[in-house]
Amino acid sequence: MTRTAFLGMGHYVPPKVVTNDDLAKMFDTSDEWIQQRTGIKERHYIEKDGIGASDLAVPAVQMACKNAGVDVAEIDAIIFATLSPDYNFPGSGVLLGDKLGLPGVPALDVRNQCSGFLYGLQVADAWIKCGMYKRVALVGAEVHSTGIDFTDEGRDVTVLFGDGAACALLGPTDDETVGVVDVEIHADGSGAQELWLEAPASKYMPRLTHEMIDDRRVWPAMNGRQVFRWATAKMPEVSRSVLERNGVATADLDLVVPHQANKRINEFVGEKLEIPADKVVHNIQRYGNTTAASIPLALSEAIQEGRAKKGDLILMPAFGSGFTWGAALVRL
Ligand code: UT7
C-alpha cells in the first residue's frame, strides 16, 4: 500500500532578531517575565514592510525541494497553512504558486491556526494515498509582526509570536516502514473567542470602523489561562489516542516535535506522557510561536542538526485557536 513520505524539509526565518529586551523598550514587559512564563528569548520579524507569508514560504519550499532532490517544477499541489495570509483574499497558496512559477498547480489554503500543519498533513496524506498528487508542498508560514499590538494592552499576546515559514515536501512511497502513520485532528468552536482576531469581520457592516480600532478589536485577543488549560489537557489526550490506535508505546518514540506555543506547556505534555525531556524538541527560545510554521520549522531544524534521523518515529501534537488540536505520528 502507498504511504506518504517526508521527501524533504525546509525552513526560513527573516533575518531581523527581536529580543525580549527590545520589546521591553516598547511596552511594559521584561525579559525575566517572558522567559519564566514562556521560555522565549527572541523571535524573528520581517525586516521591512511588504513581505508577506507567501514571500517567507518561497525559500522554505526551495530548501525542502533541494533536500528532497526534487525540482520545484515537479510540485503538483500546494497546501498553505496560515492565520496571517498576505491578503484577506485570495489565499497565500496561489501567491506562492505564482512566485514559484507553478501556473495551474492547485493551491489550498488551510485556516486552522496552530494546528494548521496537522490539518494540511491529513489532507496531503489522503491525496497522496489515493494517487491524486505526487509532490505536495505542505507549507506553514506566518507574518505575525504586522498584526500584533505593541502597547501595554497587547503585551500578553505580542511577546509570544514570531514570523517564519517551513515546508514539508510530501510524496508517495511503497516502503510501508516509513512515512505518515496516522494523523488525528479535532475542533471545538465553543472556544473560538478565547483566542481570536475579531475585526475586520464580514458579519459587520462596515467590516471595519474607527471604533473597532479604538476599542482594540483589530488585534489578537487571548484568554491565556484558559488556552493553557485546554492545551495541557488536549495535547496529551490526542497524543495517547493516536499512539494507542497504532499500538505504539511512548517508549517507542524517538522524538516529540510539538507545536511551539509555550515551553512550559510542552514540558508539561512531555511529563504527562512520561517522555524523557531530551526527546522533546524546543526551539521556541529562538523563534517564539510561529503558529502554522512551528511544527515543520522545529522538525526541519531537528533534521538539519542531525537530531531527527531517517527511520525515527516522531509524534507531533498541537493545540491552538479554534479551538483546534491534533497529533501526527510519522516515521521519517
Ligand atoms: O499557540 C496558540 C496557543 N497559545 C497558547 O498556548 C498560550 C497559552 N497561554 C500561555 O502560555 C500563558 O497563559 C501566557 C504565557 C500567555 C501568560 O502566562 P500566565 O501565567 O497565564 O499569566 P497571566 O495571563 O495570568 O498574567 C499574569 C500577570 C498579569 O498581571 P497581574 O494581573 O497578576 O498583575 C498580567 O497582566 O502577568 C501580566 N502579564 C505580563 N507581564 C509582563 C501579562 N503579559 C505580560 C507581559 N509582560 N508580556
Named CATH architecture of the largest domain: 3-Layer(aba) Sandwich
Count of domain modules: 2
Number of strand elements: 13
In percent, how much strand structure appears in the residues? 15-25%
Q: What CATH first level of the largest domain would be assigned? A: Alpha Beta
How many helical elements? 11
**How confident overall, as mean pLDDT?**
98
Broad shape? globular
Summarize the structure.
This protein is an alpha/beta fold. The chain is 32% helix and 23% strand.
Tell me what the structure shows.
This protein has 332 residues and is of the alpha/beta class. It has 2 domains: 171 residues, Peroxisomal Thiolase, Chain A, domain 1, CATH 3.40.47.10; 142 residues, Peroxisomal Thiolase, Chain A, domain 1 (3-Layer(aba) Sandwich). Helices cover 32% and strands 23% of the residues. It has 11 helices and 13 strands. A 5-stranded mixed beta sheet has the order 1-7-6-4-5, sandwiched between helices. It has a 4-stranded mixed beta sheet with strand order 8-13-12-11, with helices on both faces. Helix 4 links the parallel strand 4 and strand 5. Helix 3 packs across helix 4 and helix 8 runs parallel beside helix 9. The longest helix has 22 residues. The chain is globular and about 55 Å long. The model has no long low-confidence stretch (mean pLDDT 98). Bound molecules: oxa(dethia)-CoA. Oxa(dethia)-CoA binds next to helix 2, helix 6 and helix 8.
